[in-house]
Amino acid sequence: MYQSHLTRRSLRSFTRWMESRNIRLSDGLNIVKGEKCGIVCDELGVTAACDLQEGEVIAIIPKDACLTLRTTGAANLLNDAQLSGGLGLVVALMYERSRGEASPWFPYLNLLPLCHKALPIVWESDEIHNFLLGTELHSVILEDRKLIEEDWRECIWPLTQEYPTEFPEEHFSLEHYFSAKTLVSSRSFEVDDYHGYGMVPVADLFNHKTNNEDVHVMDEPNLCIIDESVSTSDRHPVEEESNYLGCSFIDNLTNAQHHSCSTIKERNDQCRNEVLEIVLVRDVPMGSEIFNTYGELSNASLLHRHGFTEPDNPFDIVNIDYVLVMQYCTSFFSKCHVRNRIRFWRKYGCAPLTSQASEYFEIEASGKPQPELLFLLYIMHLPEKDVLAAEVALHELDTAVKADCAMNWEMKAWKTFFDFPANHLKRARCNRYTWSKSEGEIDSCIMFFFTSNVCESLIWLSEKRDQAYGQATLEEDLKLLEDARQRDNEKLFHALYLRVSERSILRRLCHHSFEELKKNRSQKRDDCLLHQKDAYTRKNMPREY
Ligand SMILES: C[S@@+](CC[C@H](N)C(=O)[O-])C[C@H]1O[C@@H](n2cnc3c(N)ncnc32)[C@H](O)[C@@H]1O
After folding, report:
1. How many angstroms separate the alpha carbon of residue 43 from the centre of ligand 1?
2. Ligand 1 within 6 A of CB of 293
3. Domains identified in the chain, total number
4. What distance in angstroms lies between residue 486's CA and the mean position of ligand 1's atoms?
5. Which residues, in sequence order, are CB contacts of 195 under 8 Å at separation 6+?
6. What's the whole-model pTM score?
7. Ligand 1 test: best mutation among 40, 44, 110, most atoms within 8 Å of CB?
8. Rounded to an integer, what distance in angstroms lies between the CA atom of residue 448 and that of residue 55?
């Protein structure tokens, strides 16, 4: 991605620029590219040049060196045009790029690619359709592209007409907008409330690791750095052949002498300014890559915003559309039955998740469905008399719980409603039901809903959802994934990885539901646990009510 930009010259000029903008980088860091940067071959990353310790400040970045809506030369114009948020930042980036060497960020921008081509919003249409079919991203990307075009037509093109000198058409085309968007999506950080999101030099060099990051980027408002010039001749040599790409202007110490930025901070705490700090949150041994985290993101979100997926991502999910659940319900029950049960379900605070125009339920990486989906399927299958009994009980509970001001009555009512009969069976079922070996604690509330009917519904839903991926089986996808890995086809690899991880989640859901179904059948368990006569009587309510 950086090949054409990463020359010795551009790195030297970036280093000098950091110096001029008071950006401080610990000499314990190496900025590397290629295979030294463990996860990605043609990108940059940061490694430890010596053993580093938790708590060290390894970089200090003045906020005025960040490119934000406040610091850009177009700040007033963007303010007048009422362009803010992500869209404003993309225009600010395009604006600074259009100024070439006249931009105060030129040496930094010169290091960035024009476009991060790994992001699906800039893939060819046939790649989007072929690679992403069935995945969480397919419709999202198509929708995104429409919205991006609309934004450009409504907000950016008019700017080029109103201020042709500041926003010349040739630098603010739709293509430029898409390209700038990929950089803001994959590299911007929230600076603070005043600046909002911005392009943060140095902080954007760290690659991502889920749940196991080495650094945090921290807002440290009461800190300032004095100008501490270091002779440029003391810099590390930047060798074209090696993976080492350079370091900061304060990197002139040996590893044994290595100074973290904490030292600089201590020396300068008389003088105050606004800066961001990059702080180590764990020890990092010499030679290891230093990772940041971009958040607890599913593979679909990682691919969407950053152009890659992560193996064994614990935050992976797959969604089942509400429409598909309704399709299931209406094919087994009358419309009137479905309407009434949905009303009942919603009355007690349940709803699908929503995003843009879609409503859906999440299935976790372990295959565990969102509880609201289980409640819905459970209620859908309840015999009519049990629904009526439940209504009465819930009404009584409502009165009781309302008296307790500290409680959210809806949640408590649901909890009690479902906990009560579950309690009778808890012990028996707890011992035989687990989602995965790693999940030690069993959610009794969730288990309760895995009646045979619910299990069958879940199997139906997971199989139907899987059909969205087309004809190929999961095993065939796995073979294609291996091929893509061997051929170094990154786009295809990450798209296939997303498919495979989503389909594996569905398979886990199907497998667990099937296992439960088998157990229910072998034990001839009554499908409707709420048949127990006294389940709803006041005398059997938990004592707290
Ligand atoms: C903030 S930049 C990190 C520095 C970047 N590697 C560079 O060359 O400047 C984010 C981009 O780095 C890459 N990246 C970060 N973490 C990654 C990971 N765990 N696996 C693959 N690519 C990753 C992705 O291309 C992502 O969009």
Report:
1. 7
2. no
3. 3
4. 20
5. 63, 66, 68, 69, 70, 71
6. 0.81
7. 40
8. 46
